[in-house]
Amino acid sequence: MTIDLRLYLVTDPGTERLDDVVAAAVSGGATCVQVRDKHATTRALTDRARALRATLPAHVAVIVDDDVEAARAVDGVHVGTGDVPPSVARATLGPDAVIGWSINHLDQLGDDTQLAACDYVAVSPVWATVTKPDATEPFGLAGVRAVADLLARRLPLVAIGGIDLDRTADVVRAGADGVAVVSAICGAADPRSAAEHLRRVVDAALAET
Ligand code: TZP
Ligand code: MG
């Protein structure tokens, strides 16, 4: 499947009634969902991802963070520092899986083997965020521009880290094809409305580019 990155929901396992939040976000306009839980077993991640896959529309990709084995149950995996590289994920999951790769340094874009193995790149983090306190040095908007220029449309680009409604348009104008968020949706009082607003801003900014 091809993944639509316009509004990428990364789930926070601490969120109450997470399945309801995901369903609300998707009905509001989230285009793909990542199951992220650094403390869950492969079994638990597999069950959670499979349950989401069963309830969400087919065009909304369900991706597992880090765990290539759990990703077998759904559409694909997202890997980054400390995980297997995209080439290994590709060899394990095969040609139809969606594979995303977080890059933390511009020089990673020189690795053609890894770029050839993935379906999209995430520029991570754009800004510092309490959601991921161990993240590397933030790219900022200038960094997003630099990544987009170096990538030169070889792969779609999603931006993550500290993105909220006010920052979304600038991130897309800097060259991202979409925004990935945790707290802007999982921490919202009304996740459906939060997703609707974010999607509207992404779509409007994409229409300008
Ligand atoms: N990877 C880089 S930053 C981040 C992840 C998973 C967390 C983003 O969370 P938030 O709440 O959208 O800033
Ligand atoms: Mg990871």
UniProtKB/TrEMBL annotation:
Identify the metabolic or biological route this protein is part of. Answer: Cofactor biosynthesis; thiamine diphosphate biosynthesis; thiamine phosphate from 4-amino-2-methyl-5-diphosphomethylpyrimidine and 4-methyl-5-(2-phosphoethyl)-thiazole: step 1/1
What are its GO cellular component terms?
cytoplasm
Q: Which reaction does it catalyse?
A: 4-methyl-5-(2-phosphooxyethyl)-thiazole + 4-amino-2-methyl-5-(diphosphooxymethyl)pyrimidine + H(+) = thiamine phosphate + diphosphate; 2-[(2R,5Z)-2-carboxy-4-methylthiazol-5(2H)-ylidene]ethyl phosphate + 4-amino-2-methyl-5-(diphosphooxymethyl)pyrimidine + 2 H(+) = thiamine phosphate + CO2 + diphosphate; 2-(2-carboxy-4-methylthiazol-5-yl)ethyl phosphate + 4-amino-2-methyl-5-(diphosphooxymethyl)pyrimidine + 2 H(+) = thiamine phosphate + CO2 + diphosphate
Q: Which GO terms describe its biological process?
A: thiamine biosynthetic process; thiamine diphosphate biosynthetic process
What does the note accompanying the cofactor annotation read? Binds 1 Mg(2+) ion per subunit.
Q: Where is the Thiamine phosphate synthase/TenI domain?
A: 7-185
- What is the main EC category here? transferase
> Molecular function terms in GO for this entry?
magnesium ion binding; thiamine-phosphate diphosphorylase activity
User: What Pfam families has UniProt attached to this entry?
Assistant: TMP-TENI
Keyword Metal-binding annotated? yes
Record-listed 4-amino-2-methyl-5-(diphosphooxymethyl)pyrimidine binding positions: Q34, V35, R36, D37, K38, D65, S102, K132
**For binding Mg(2+), which residues are annotated in this chain's numbering?**
D66, D83
Q: What family does the database annotate?
A: Belongs to the thiamine-phosphate synthase family.
**Which PANTHER family does the record associate with it?**
THIAMINE-PHOSPHATE PYROPHOSPHORYLASE, THIAMINE-PHOSPHATE SYNTHASE
> What is this protein for, i.e. what is its function?
Condenses 4-methyl-5-(beta-hydroxyethyl)thiazole monophosphate (THZ-P) and 2-methyl-4-amino-5-hydroxymethyl pyrimidine pyrophosphate (HMP-PP) to form thiamine monophosphate (TMP).
Designated name of the protein: Thiamine-phosphate synthase
Q: Which organism is it from?
A: Aeromicrobium fastidiosum
Q: Which gene encodes it?
A: thiE
